[in-house]
Amino acid sequence: MAGNTFGQVFRVTTWGESHGKAIGVVIDGCPPGLSLSESDIQQDLDRRRPQDAPVSTPRREPDKVEVLSGTFEGMTTGTPISLIIYNKDVDSRAYETMKDAFRPGHGDFTYQKKYGIRDYRGGGRASGRETAARVAAGAIARKLLDQEGITVRAYTLELAGVRVEQVDLDVIDKNPFLAPDLDAVSQIEERIEEIKEAGDSAGGIVEVVVRGCPAGLGEPVFDKLDAELAKGVMSIGAVKGVEIGVGLAAARMLGSECNDEITPEGFVTNRSGGILAGISNGDEIVVRAAVKPISSIEKEQRTVDINMKPTTISVKGRHDVSAVPRIVPVCEAMVRLVIVDHLLRQRTIPFQGA
Amino acid sequence: MAGNTFGQVFRVTTWGESHGKAIGVVIDGCPPGLSLSESDIQQDLDRRRPQDAPVSTPRREPDKVEVLSGTFEGMTTGTPISLIIYNKDVDSRAYETMKDAFRPGHGDFTYQKKYGIRDYRGGGRASGRETAARVAAGAIARKLLDQEGITVRAYTLELAGVRVEQVDLDVIDKNPFLAPDLDAVSQIEERIEEIKEAGDSAGGIVEVVVRGCPAGLGEPVFDKLDAELAKGVMSIGAVKGVEIGVGLAAARMLGSECNDEITPEGFVTNRSGGILAGISNGDEIVVRAAVKPISSIEKEQRTVDINMKPTTISVKGRHDVSAVPRIVPVCEAMVRLVIVDHLLRQRTIPFQGA
Amino acid sequence: MAGNTFGQVFRVTTWGESHGKAIGVVIDGCPPGLSLSESDIQQDLDRRRPQDAPVSTPRREPDKVEVLSGTFEGMTTGTPISLIIYNKDVDSRAYETMKDAFRPGHGDFTYQKKYGIRDYRGGGRASGRETAARVAAGAIARKLLDQEGITVRAYTLELAGVRVEQVDLDVIDKNPFLAPDLDAVSQIEERIEEIKEAGDSAGGIVEVVVRGCPAGLGEPVFDKLDAELAKGVMSIGAVKGVEIGVGLAAARMLGSECNDEITPEGFVTNRSGGILAGISNGDEIVVRAAVKPISSIEKEQRTVDINMKPTTISVKGRHDVSAVPRIVPVCEAMVRLVIVDHLLRQRTIPFQGA
Amino acid sequence: MAGNTFGQVFRVTTWGESHGKAIGVVIDGCPPGLSLSESDIQQDLDRRRPQDAPVSTPRREPDKVEVLSGTFEGMTTGTPISLIIYNKDVDSRAYETMKDAFRPGHGDFTYQKKYGIRDYRGGGRASGRETAARVAAGAIARKLLDQEGITVRAYTLELAGVRVEQVDLDVIDKNPFLAPDLDAVSQIEERIEEIKEAGDSAGGIVEVVVRGCPAGLGEPVFDKLDAELAKGVMSIGAVKGVEIGVGLAAARMLGSECNDEITPEGFVTNRSGGILAGISNGDEIVVRAAVKPISSIEKEQRTVDINMKPTTISVKGRHDVSAVPRIVPVCEAMVRLVIVDHLLRQRTIPFQGA
After folding, report:
1. How many CA atoms within 13 Å lie on the side-chain side of B21?
2. Contacts with D116 (C-beta within 8 Å, 6 or more apart), sequence order
3. What's the gap in Å between the CA of C128 and the closest CA on chain A?
4. Hey, of A72, A108, A346, which one would you mutate to test binding to chain D, going by the most D CBs within 10 A of its CB?
5. Cα–Cα 20 to 30 A to C34, which of A19, B111, C189, C209?
6. With contacts defined as CB-CB under 8 Å, which chain A residues touch C9?
7. Which of A31, A76, A144 sits opposite C350 (nearest CB)?
């Protein structure tokens, strides 16, 4: 009800504020018998960590995860898995200036309206930091999907106006933008540097591809696989649009252009993005998320204070130029959570007694 | 779990197949004391009914709704409201030819994979007919929103490649395409006619605008208002993309272009589409859905039969050229359901004892 | 949220008022491929029907069920199954006198307090009639359990102070009290007749036994199998107490008396009632429900009217002397719903990739 | 789905094993603006702590709770509240002997059957230790209920065959058995000592009384207030029976004896236990739980090992003679959780726009 839980069988509940004691996640419904260690999860968190790139914030988050429950002798037991990441490098002073002024484009205003109180330090619960808990849960989902031969990979498709021209999954982790095209990297770097100089920020597009997903996942009519993917991806702070397969382009296609013909060898094309009538068709699932530029910018902007009096704000301090590289693993995690959840839901479908 | 229920407080469960005895919906959680008659619901269903336009199917669906429970002397009582629409004009013969061949772009293939059995007549549960139940539930949501001064209006923003140039809500119901711009109508008509001649189909874009929504709706972090809207809209069969506010354009904006500055009079712009950090900010909420062309086309396409043997298919019979005009009221209904649900969820937030 | 749905995978939503147009139920999550006809369900409803016995009301309810969706050519398809029972023999005049006075022991007072409005005719939603919908859903659960070799049988253990002395499942349907002991029947009859003469009503105890249930069902820690059974059975209007296995007697036992020792052949005793730590142990599951006497009695009682003014009430008309025989199939249905739901939930547990 | 979450609006998710690193709980849906400190919660945990009495285990559990999220400057913010209790005094050696043998009356056998793996140390997840997390969550519920003028008090009604003869709430915390009758204490002590000598254990009954609960809480038809209370209380490990109001005695009453007449001053009697048709009627809510004797006893019992080979077991070590005093605060906590949840659910009912 209060929205901090995702999934129906593989249920993920995150908690924690950016500048509180810790953040964490409880995963309820993970099948027993899965080998799981802290390092399995740490490797996914490390990928999300700020890297030595102009796009990223200088804040050094150790993001050291601990497994507090749900495993025994290195195996999951079917009981809730509790993961915790203590907040170490917390400097709230920079945020004191934001205590009373609402940052444009941020949740400051809406949290205040909703709850009448907010932890303004570092964005509190609305901070991107909350997504570390999602990535941690997503690492467990990844291990489950590995067993089923399903891989989920996300990458930067476009950043600061530069679109990649090829997709080479092997190079994603070899550049700070998590782009699948090294040729695009220098262009992105250049553009990011300009924007940084201008005290501004940049948006982009993340693409996620799922391979090896069996046909049959997704629940008509409201919990369609694409509906759940849309929810999962749109629940990431900065995302303003979600596409499946050809996405928005579908609006300008003819039926004969958009349908994927079928042959005994499989679908001839994949405009559907691997989902038909909300159910996976066995083809690659393709999801894209449009990410808005980071709201916290140095450029001065008009806003109001907590008493609705006019003021201006210039957000200084440790801020990324673009959230896109950090959102890549979060999109990956959310898609994994959706796929694992539906894989487990699908197990209740076959009528085994028949 | 099986996906036929939407909402947490205002819970809507739809049931029924296109060519079964009836379709219907149970609404659990509607507050008591709301004046409600069958004609309140009928007027929304009538809007969805095929009209005398080239875009629509000649099937005459009476779509006569009956209220079976949950009201007493014309008022809701707080108990479940059961609505039923009997299927009258059902001619399944045309569908016999599709019994064994999977229509490209349809759920035929995926339902078969998921369940091992399917009601192939008229698309069964995957038929657009299911959405009549959503529209019926949406009519009750509309009545609740009226009381709160919230209006939700949807219209065709683009159809068959023709984009409207102005938005006049008063003309939406005066043209068969539910377009808010009468100047665009003749162009659309012309284009639709050509596509029909070619045995093909067309996509488009639906836009939904919510006015009067208070700030504070939406639950961080997973049940953000935009995440739920995305799910609700993406759960409509033909939708392949969802945007909030500036949507995909956000990817190419700078922070200074995308942020909405705030003044004591309110937000200067509305690029956010009325939602910040997943919570409504009091401004207009703007959602767009990209609708793919109808999959059932007369143009011959390659496919396989139930034994995965190659064949071809040409879908004749009573089919729309575009689903867009029918999807307009469905988008409207889904957005209403999300808003009402979150309005009721928000009532659990304030700490009244403090 | 509003409480008209039961179960997590096998989800049952009931609707309808005693004197409304119809009552019904939507079952979402029934596996596909189950053979299902209206007569399968009708036979369970017929068992619940008033019989020619002094215990029962003379109202002739045809309780004719119709399957409106979810099956195709006699098989379930995995889509929601909608069942409807039209209310035919409805005479609301007798209830007009109760319009303003709250019947002691009834929901009249609390519905009014909760909703500020109520359908007072025949108890409205609070009527025992609602349980016909549960029995209908339970019939589908029965068919699924049959396939798994699980049987659920309920019977009258005690009625009007007369306790059965033996349990012969074969005679349950051969007497109007659904007692498993024909010797007890004449005693019960006699006692019921006396109570009827006195314008009063009687309580009793229903026992339910589940055979063939595999070990492993039930979800720690809150959704324990016994916790869910307690909820399911306590959700039946007149039930005031629920016991598992030795039940309340456990409070006076020593550990050495209460524990069930284990041998390679199985448990030596079954004081636990087939459930350990909330999970089925493979033994017989035993549940008992204490049923209070029917609240509507002819004996005059003090009460207040809708304006809280004192008055008296004597409920005349068609009322049972005891609800026990009607509650027997309802208990059976609720236990079936719990077992089926947990059977399906258990399918998500094994880690198949390991 | 996996059962570690309780409640719909005030959602409580517990995690942790008896001999793992820590146990904890995440509370999602707590209203903002509630003053909350660690000492508020600690006082409830302290009550649950083993005391210097023969009934209790010598294990010294510090049970020091930490609040990790969800509060800001001493107030709740509406975001998830994460509580952690590190396990400090953990000596698993005593449990090594139980690694392979299933203790009769315990979850050892059923966990193994359900999951194929189990953390056998100290009962793992099935340990009573898990209930500390419930008590911690219950303390927050208590603070909310305080604001509404609702008090929930539990006490030992019967222990080891000794029933209290009077209920004086003031003395509950002045004796190690949490009995409301000091005269009964010496009898209980004596009886407990005898049972301890015999290497055996004892059961009893816990009673919970709710005062100040407004009429109108509880959701027909499945989520009746009594049904939810039954589930909540039965979800406590050792509980085998639940009663509301007169409970099982209702089975032998006549309607005229069981109904509570109503006068302008209120209900004349309270046989219903404050709940009519599943909805609170404004009177005192009375719930009783029958607690079985602790399963771990020193007396030798027959059992089987993990390979189903016969063996015997005598459970030595730090075990209580009766779980009843420890279960008293857990029952209190569960009832509080149910009442708070339904209080918040009730807020979605009134139709404010009418």
Report:
1. 13
2. A32, A33, C350
3. 31
4. A72
5. C209
6. 348
7. A31
Within 8 A of C253 by CB-CB distance, chain D residues are: 203, 292-293
Pairing of strands A11-16, D11-16: unpaired
Q: Please give the C-alpha separations between residue A15 and each of A6, A151, A310, in angstroms, as whole numbers.
A: 12, 27, 33
Residue B298 phi, psi (nearest 5): -80, -30
Would the CA dihedral through A90, B226, A133, D61 be positive or negative? positive
Distance of CA B182 to the CA centre of its chain: 22
A233 vs A239: CA distance, rounded Å: 7
Number of helices (H), then strands (E), in chain C: 8, 18
Residue showing tokens 């210039």: A314
pLDDT tens digit sequence for B55-91: 555 555 578 999 999 999 999 999 999 999 999 866 6
Return the CATH number of C90-346, one of 3.40.50.300, 3.60.150.10, 1.10.10.350, 3.20.20.70: 3.60.150.10
Joined tokens for residue C102: 């709250």
End-to-end CA distance of chain B: 37
Residues C72, B118: C-beta atoms closer than 8 Å: yes
Per-residue confidence band for C300, with pLDDT thresholds at 50, 70 and 90: very high
**Bridge partners for B82 per DSSP:** B26
Model's pTM, two decimal places? Answer: 0.96
- CA–centroid distance for C325 within its chain: 10
Contact state of A22 with D68 under an 8 Å Cβ cutoff: yes
> Which residue type does D8 have?
Q
Chains that touch D (3 or more CB pairs under 8 A): A, B, C
Identify the H or E element spanning A289.
strand A285-291
Measure C350 CA to nearest chain A CA, in Å. Answer: 6
CATH top class, domain A5-346: alpha beta
- In the numeric block, which tokens belong to residue C28? 């979402």
DSSP label at C97?
Answer: T
Nearest to D301 among C221, C259, C282 (CB): C259
Cβ burial of B199 (10 Å; 0-12, 13-18, 19+) is: middle
Neighbour subunits, A (≥3 Cβ pairs < 8 A): B, C, D
Instruction: Give the number of other Cβ atoms within 10 Å of residue A324's Cβ.
Output: 33
Cβ-Cβ contacts under 8 Å, B221 against chain A: 3-4, 14, 125, 130, 235
Cα–Cα distance measured from residue B219 to residue B233, given in angstroms and rounded to the nearest whole number: 18
CA distances from D34 to A108, B346, D145 (A): 20, 17, 11
Size of chain A in residues: 354
- Summarised one tens digit per residue, pLDDT across range C62-94 is 789 999 999 999 999 999 999 999 998 666 666
Chain-chain contact of A1 with D11 (C-beta, under 8 angstroms): yes
